[in-house]
Write a structure and sequence with these properties.
SH3 type barrels; 2 domains; three-stranded antiparallel beta sheet; 9 strands; about 20% strand
């Protein structure tokens, strides 16, 4: 995230966009801690709703203010926590097998790690469900845009829509398609990575040479006998 401006009060009234460049509202007010540290902002969304957002949820880049994706932010934390706790539990098991800790202490710590992993998996599943809902919404939006393009083309073809309006409308639809496709791709990445973690994987991504296919292979060499999951996602199909 970019550095918070020294005078955040200048952001009041400024527009806020999402990560895909869509205007979503504007900053209305700020909240400080008793020590004067900026803690959160109040945003008026385009549909008239007001919401309090933590300052960490915003990215500042010059005059541009971006509200970061909650799903991506929460998933990013789990990407670190899940494999870290899992590997600690595995290391604990190895210490026990080498008789460097007694069985009672091992069981106590193992149960603690297991409880943490169980909670993290629940959180991961909630994020996966939210990502799936978001993917479905993106699919519906893309379908609606496709119909919009079709009708625009028909009306332009029969002369009901002039060239200037046609070009302007088509450019808008094309830009929205790119934004929605980018959002869908991000949500699919979140869903796939967390799903792999829940199956016991620590996925690492690499791009094969001379290939337009992105392949993600789970690398679980250091983990306790997890299954290996491979998923393939075609890229480069954004557009109308």
């Amino acid at each position: 995230m970019s550095q918070i401006p020294s005078n955040l009060f200048l952001s009041i009234g400024k527009p806020v966009k999402d990560e895909y460049g869509r205007p979503i509202g504007r900053i209305i007010s700020l909240a400080n801690t008793p020590s004067g540290k900026f803690e959160s902002v109040f945003i008026e969304f385009s549909d008239g709703r007001f919401a309090k957002q933590p300052i960490e949820a915003l990215a500042f880049n010059g005059a541009d203010i971006t509200l970061l994706s909650k799903i991506k932010s929460k998933a990013s934390v789990l990407y670190d926590q899940l494999p870290f706790i899992w590997r600690k539990d595995q290391a604990l098991k190895e210490l026990s097998e080498k008789r460097k800790i007694n069985s009672e202490l091992y069981q106590e710590l193992h149960n603690s790690f297991s409880n943490v992993l169980s909670q993290l998996r629940k959180e991961a599943q909630i994020i996966i469900d939210d990502a799936i809902q978001g993917i479905n919404r993106c699919d519906e939006d893309l379908k609606t845009i496709s119909y919009s393009v079709l009708n625009l083309e028909l009306e332009h073809e029969i002369g009901k829509v002039n060239d200037d309006i046609y070009k302007s409308s088509f450019a808008t639809l094309q830009e929205n398609t790119k934004r929605i496709t980018a959002e869908k791709n991000d949500l699919e990445t979140v869903k796939n990575k967390l799903s792999n973690f829940l199956l016991g994987d620590s996925p690492t991504q690499h791009q094969p040479k001379n290939s337009s296919i992105e392949v993600t292979v789970a690398d679980a060499a250091d983990l306790p006998e997890p299954p290996v999951v491979v998923y393939v996602k075609e890229v480069g199909k954004a557009g109308i």
